[in-house]
Amino acid sequence: KDKVTTATVKQMKAEGRPITMLTAYDFSMAKLVDDAGIDMILVGDSLGNVMLGYESTLPVTMDEMIHHVKAVCRGTSRAMVVADLPFMSYQVSVKEALRNSGRFLKETTASAVKLEGGQEVFDVIRAVVDAGIPVVGHLGLTPQSVHQMGGYKVQGKDEAAARKLLADAKCVEEAGAFCLVLECVPAPLAKLVTESLQIPTIGIGAGAQCDGQVLVIHDMLGLYPRSSPKFVKKYVNLHEHMTAALKQYIEEVTERSFPGPEHSFGMSEEVLKKLY
Ligand code: KIV
Ligand code: NA
Fold it and tell me: What ipTM was estimated for this complex?
């Protein structure tokens, strides 16, 4: 199985083959996702929410990201690993953006970075791409701007916002990003953005007309007990299955029915006799 690269992604768009992406944050989950045949694994800063229990993605640090990206890379052999640049790792200056993007590629085996924003991050995207680091853009609902947006809601609904999103998408492409995540954007607008760009779009809550789709793995596996947004499809309710397993374990230990003989080790009667 050949490793997925920027060239593969470009080829898939050219052939009209949908690009599949999921998040993962650790070795076991990455291995599961990679073995299933996913094209791209995003180590999202959503790890702040689902792995670390923060209220938003804002507190996530570069060191926390690197820790998880390393684990994901160890579990991945085919998929392309994309590392999410956390809040304030690329906004302060182009220099800091370069330094932090560089850390991902030097300290892990991720092969691309992702960052949020449009026209305001044009110079950052350009510089990171010029350094030889592939960049994934992210527009629409950009969780690192939650306070600016006034909450997590659908973006680009009125004409001005839609025009801004379209212009930002063209900026991201012109700056050199090789694909673009569209989060919580009306489906018809995501379709228009997709038709207006050469690079593939990857949607999350952005309808079926994007070139690919991404979901947070905890959401699609039903691992996370929070109420999921409308765009999430729960393919399985693992939370329910896991809770049942945990309760059964507690019950069996309590009533001494676990471990059984099949889970236990014996020893010779002779040796045992000497001990008594
Ligand atoms: O952090 C994340 O998981 C993301 C995806 C939702 C696109 O940015
Ligand atoms: Na993110």
Answer: 0.99
